[in-house]
Specification:
Structural class: alpha+beta
Distance between the termini: 51 Å
Low-confidence stretches: none
Order of helices and strands: EHEHEEEHHHHHHEEEEEEEEEHHH
Shape: globular
CATH class of the largest domain: Alpha Beta
CATH architecture of the largest domain: 2-Layer Sandwich
Number of helices: 11
Mean pLDDT: 94
Largest sheet: 5 strands, antiparallel
Strand order of the largest sheet: 4-5-10-6-7
Length: about 290
């Protein structure tokens, strides 16, 4: 592995300066569970690794009346071990508890999972259905990008030279909001989704009608997919309308654009998307009601 400098900046501005100076030869280090593996494999020829864990803003969690903001370097366990966050953001917790094992979850976070932009990443679709927004800092200042627009291809995202992910912001969910995420893996020893679905709903005050919905698909396209037609099939319908939920499953399968590989075929993945969509919509409704 090519020798590189280790830098531990104390502020976002210092980190941006190092990343901007080295360009493609520098990478931010949050959990490191992807970066170190990729560096050893020769994917990167790095001159600098920039540790984000010493920047207070990147390891902070803020949850108040305006919503939730999670620093990009916050590890998974700090999310799912927080009872209040688990109750308010259940889809994200479904994913945070699946990313690797306990040891990995003590370092890895949903911020790094998003930046890595793997099509099968567990946290990206839950971030999308929770209406997440990425806060990015760079040489030109800060900007915000909707989570569904963040990934641009396998391993690629919207961040430019010198930019880094600072945090993820989520609006405060209503009392009738629910979300859920589930994946299908070929076996326990292969911890990569063949297909996965996240869904969220917001019900009316009487909890009988679906006011808002989102469905997002993982591992069935070059980027995570926001299946708008699947959500449209649900909005305005009764939360008990099986036909609407089935229509959402069919629409989600139609939105998927998978490939056949060693983990599954196109046909299998589309079938899984339909089944998982119906299952996750029902689970999201159940959580919204409870």
């Amino acid at each position: 592995m090519h020798p590189f400098a280790y830098v531990a900046p104390k502020t976002v501005e210092e980190a941006v300066a190092v990343l901007d100076k080295h360009g493609d030869k520098a990478r931010p280090l949050a959990g490191g569970t992807d970066l170190l593996v990729q560096a050893r494999a020769g994917r990167f020829n790095l001159d600098a690794v920039v540790d984000m864990k010493s920047i207070p803003e990147l390891v902070a969690i803020k949850n108040d009346a305006s919503g939730l903001e999670v620093g990009a370097a916050v590890p998974c366990y700090q999310l799912y071990e927080n009872a209040k966050l688990s109750a308010e953001f259940p889809g994200i917790m479904d994913a945070a508890s699946l990313i690797g094992g306990i040891q990995v979850q003590s370092r890895a976070g949903i911020g790094g999972n998003l930046c890595n932009a793997t099509p099968s990443a567990d946290s990206i679709c839950p971030i999308i259905v929770h209406y997440g927004t990425a806060v990015i800092a760079g040489p030109k200042g800060r900007r915000e990008v909707a989570s569904e627009d963040f990934c641009t291809g396998p391993g690629r995202n919207v961040m430019e030279k010198g930019e880094l992910l600072v945090s993820l912001k989520f609006p405060k969910p209503s009392a009738t909001f629910g979300a859920a995420y589930e994946r299908f893996i070929p076996r326990n020893e292969m911890d990569i989704a063949v297909a996965a679905v996240a869904a969220s709903v917001e019900l009316s005050e009487d909890k009988k009608t679906i006011k808002k919905a989102r469905v997002a698909l993982s591992a069935v396209g070059p980027t995570p997919i926001l299946a708008k037609a699947a959500a449209d099939a649900l909005v305005g319908k009764s939360a008990d309308d099986e036909a609407a939920i089935s229509a959402a499953g069919v629409a989600a399968a139609a939105a998927a654009s998978p490939i056949s590989d060693m983990r599954g075929t196109v046909e299998q993945r589309k079938h899984l998307v339909e089944v998982l969509t119906k299952r996750m919509v029902k689970k999201a409704i159940e959580r919204a009601r409870n």
